[in-house]
Amino acid sequence: MERSLVLVKPDGVRRGLIGEVIRRIEAKGYALTRLELREATRDLLAEHYAEHREKPFYEPLVEFMLSGPVVAMVVEGERVVEGFRSLAGATDPTVAAPGTIRGDFGRDWGPGVVQNIVHGSDSTASAEREVKIWFG
Q: Is residue 98 part of a domain?
């Protein structure tokens, strides 16, 4: 049984999409084993996004993630990392397929201002690291 970290980002929380994200996760047959509404800190985000620290989108991403509460979840199921990423859709909401979370709800407001609703771990190794960062 795999685990993945899923975050509903501040745009998803502000727009009242927490329930819709959870509905899609549960409809796929995955189990939510941890869930917490919280304010991310700069230190937590620095650890979470460490591999992006030198990239030009890092600071705008951190500022966006600090702009409001997030919902952090541990989701479990068979091949859940791959499965949730399929549910989420492409990172770029403009090209994300209709029927995916990002395709249906994500917004692209121009350079550095992409709001794509959710984060999902990209590998089982990342999932374990990220779950530990967010839930100890």
A: no
